[in-house]
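Hi P.,

Sorry for the delay on this. The queue was packed all week, but I finally got your sequence through. Input first:
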Amino acid sequence: MLIFDADDTLWENNVIFERVIDEFLEWTALPAPGRDGVRTGPGRDGVRARLDAIEAANARTHGYGSKVFLRSLEECLVGLRGRAATAEESARISGWAAAFDGHQVELIAGVAETLAELGRRHELLLLTKGDKEEQERKVAASGLTHHFKGVHIVPEKDVATYEELVRAYALVRGETWMIGNSPKSDILPARSAGLNAVFIPNDNTWVLEHSELDPADEKVLRLAAFGELLEHF
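Then the structure:
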């Protein structure tokens, strides 16, 4: 059994968030004049650090997805401005929702062909976390659903999530592989559940999904591109 992550493994996702963040930083990181006329402010790095902290807190409380992300942007803006957002500012943030409509996704190179071939050799599952409605739209738009024996959308990908899949499908742990780009959600919890893992890095992986992997762990296969899976499975 091969279990696949979706966002940033099968299709590009976080790059869309990064584009919006870049626009947000351009808008909010401009320094304001202080009392002595010297322009001061947190700068881009300072604003990004604040936003990352707010996103981490909101993810723990409210989960994942564009709605939580836009909430985090407004909370960050309020903190920076030291006041409630104006109607114009709130409208500007709400306008970014269109970037996440999910009706089109950009498949990562080699995904469609590789899944088609792997599906002839193995059973495949899809495991993705986030807002259920939002993830369902992306899965449908991908055109990949027919490759998978099951599609699972969960609020969090932790050890318990993988243990539940093991029970639901009577998986043989040593013959099951979790494939994804996130050390935090795809690799480490799967390994803790006794599954093997394939790490395929994505340059745009969300900073909150970063984590250190054990370079000596022989049960983690590291690949440079999705198509390389055909050389191993």
